[in-house]
Structures are given as C-alpha cells and as structure tokens.
Amino acid sequence: MTGEPLLRIENLVKHFHVRLGAFGEREATVHALDDIDLDIMEGETLSLVGESGCGKSTTGFTILNLYRATSGRILYKGQDLSKLNEDQMRPFRRDLQIVFQDPYSTLNPRMTVGEAISEPMLFHKLATKAQLKDKLDSLLSDVGLPTRFAQRYPHELSGGQRQRVVIARALACQPKFIVCDEAISALDVSIQAQIINLLLDLQDKYRLTYLFIAHDLAVVRHISTRVGVMYLGRLAELAPRDEIFTNPLHPYTRALLSAVPEIDPAHERTRQRQILQGDVPSPLDPPTGCRFHTRCPIAMDVCRIDVPAWREARPGHKVACHAVPIEAQA
Ligand SMILES: Nc1ncnc2c1ncn2[C@@H]1O[C@H](COP(=O)(O)OP(=O)(O)OP(=O)(O)O)[C@@H](O)[C@H]1O
Ligand code: SF4
Ligand SMILES: [Mg+2]
Predict the structure, then answer these.
(1) Which residues neighbour 86 within 8 Å (Cβ) at sequence distance 6 or greater?
(2) pLDDT digits over 136-177, tens only?
(3) Domains, the chain, ranges and CATH?
(4) Which residues, 6+ apart, have CB-to-CB distance to 307 below 8 Å?
(5) 31-41, pLDDT tens digit by residue?
(6) How far is the CA of 321 from the centre of ligand 2 (A)?
(7) 57 CB under 6 A from ligand 1?
(8) SS3 306
C-alpha cells in the first residue's frame, strides 16, 4: 500500500426517492448515504461492515457511478466521477470493476466461459483477435481454472468455479479497483477460503485495490487493511484492521465486533458479547443527531441534537461519536 489515495470520496450523499402506500400516493426519501468521507488507498483492502441496509452496497455502487450521487464528490485520476455521464465514464469503467455475491446474475447463461472473459477484452480493445486465446488462457490460469474450461457454460460449473470466472472477467479489464460486494457470501466455507486466497494473490500480482463488503467479520479480520463501520447511511468508525478489532472506540463498533469469536480459547471463554437492543430505525426518517442514539447504551442529550463530527481520534483512526474521550484525540 502506498501513501496515495486511489479514490477520494468527499461528502458523498445518496438519497433514493420512493413512492409509498398501496397506490404509491406518498413520496418519501430513503437516506441511504449521508456525508461519507473516505480515502481509499492504492493497494489496500478497505472493508465495509454494518448491519443489513446500512448502505454498504450503495457506497460501492455510488463510487462506481452505477448509482448517481445525490451530492458530493468521487475523485479518481483528477476527475469527479459523480459529474460524468455514461459516455464520459467509459474510459474509467475499465479501471473500476465489481464482483457480486451471485455469479449467475453476472454471467450470461448462453455464453461460454471463454466468450464471457473475452467480451470485455474486445470491448475495451485490450486484445486483438490473434492475441485473445493466449490472454484467455493466462486469465484462466490466474484464477486457477484449466484452460479447457473456456468451452464450458456457467451451468456446467460449481459456485466457486463460476465466481472464479467472474473474477477472471473483471481481471480481463486490467482494473485498478474492484468492489467485492459479498463476493464470497454464497459459497461453502472451504470454497470461501480458496476465493479469499485467490483475491489476495491477485491483489499482490496486479496491485489491485479492493472495497470489500462482507457480513462475516472473521473474514474481514483476515483480509482487510482497514475497516470502515457503517450505521444507517453514515460512517461510524474507520481504522486499520488490528486497531479496530483491538481498540474499537464507537459504541456501535464495540457491539458489532463483540460478536466475533476469539481464536484463543482462553479469550473466547471470557469474551463478553454486547447485544444491541432494538431495531435499526427507518432510513426514511433517520433519528436526529447521532443516528445510533436510539440504541446507544451511553447516549447523552447532545447525541439527540448534534450530528457527531467525523474526526481523527487517534492517528489514522476516525470516529463519529460525542463520547470518545478527549484524551484519545490526536
Ligand atoms: N434502488 C434503491 N431504491 C430505493 N432504496 C434503495 C435502493 N437501493 C438501496 N436502497 C435502500 O438504501 C439503504 C441501503 O441499502 P444497501 O443495499 O446499500 O444496504 P447494505 O448495507 O448493502 O445491506 P445488505 O447487507 O443487506 O446488503 C436501504 O435502506 C435500502 O433499502
Ligand atoms: S454520539 Fe452519542 S449516541 Fe452516538 S454513539 Fe456516541 S455516545 Fe452513542
Ligand atoms: Mg448489500
């Protein structure tokens, strides 16, 4: 990892306008993302965690300009992607790829593996017809598949093999940045480990930067350089992996991470799980002040009124909480 941000996200907001009621008679706004500030450093794996619906996928989609930002900036190679239309995005599309949970939805069932992987190379003019076979063989070998798999169709493959094809298809674009949105969640545990190792090997080989979205905190602990914790459309905390797992500052992070089993049996016996009370409030009408105040065990009056600032509490460790002690500040 270098000291340079590959992507700089400033005050990113994404609201969805929806219609509610049996006949869609009421308009409402889903506050999916509010004021996300984030630097994604070249060569790192930045993981996003948080309960379902907190905005992890929306962050990935909006950064890639697959969802148009409501406001804010997404800076990449000196351009604000959020201001570009689809034509202007084309030169950047190659660099910025996404891998989803369900490889079936990404792969055309009527295309062979070879066709699926070749398509982006031809589209982006990364290979001539004469070079295609060699490039295809090399990509299949990169993702650990025999070259004869080029003739197969997606339904002839296992889930893990299909995900390898999806990864090869993303790699075919020679990307810089890949959003992995629950990319391993649907796979058996043993296959998950193989795909994680594959992603790490490819990161080393091609200097890839990942935004890794996952529910499994043990996997996040294994794979991440830094971890961002989201709650109801906002970032609650962001820190290097070891720092966040050993010294979480935000009450939500503490509760979330207390669920991760310890490898050491002695620690595991004494581990105190914090159970979060109540449900996540609706993103249609998020709480005022700190969005976590309705569930926070240490909420104060100020938390109901003022949005906590996103600030560096320790070097490289950011948090949004009124209660983080002054002595912990940088
Ligand atoms: N296209 C859309 N239209 C309206 N609301 C949306 C849309 N996409 C997402 N949302 C809403 O935005 C919020 C954030 O959703 P998002 O999918 O980003 O959450 P997530 O953290 O990825 O959840 P999960 O862990 O379940 O995948 C949710 O309230 C969701 O219902
Ligand atoms: S700002 Fe207040 S409510 Fe929010 S997490 Fe901190 S203490 Fe809890
Ligand atoms: Mg999601």
Answers:
(1) none
(2) 999 999 999 999 999 999 999 999 999 999 999 999 999 999
(3) 5-95+175-328 (3.40.50.300), 98-174 (no CATH)
(4) 289, 290, 320
(5) 999 999 999 99
(6) 5
(7) yes
(8) coil
Residue 264 neighbours by CB under 8 Å, 6+ apart: none
3-state secondary structure 127-182: CCHHHHHHHHHHHHHHCCCCHHHHHCCHHHCCHHHHHHHHHHHHHCCCCCEEEEEC
Strand 177-181, strand 5-20: pairing: unpaired
State the angle between helix axes of 189-206 and 159-171 in degrees (0 to 180), rounded to the nearest 10. 10
pLDDT per residue as tens digits for the range 86-96: 999 998 999 99
Amino acid identity, residue 120?
P
CA 252 to ligand 2: nearest atom: 5
Asked if 226 and 241 touch (Cβ cutoff 8 Å), the reply is yes
User: Is the Cβ atom of 70 under 6 angstroms away from ligand 1?
Assistant: no
The residue assigned the tokens 């002695």 is 266
pLDDT at 138 (0 to 100): 97
- At 196, give phi and psi (nearest 5°): -60, -45
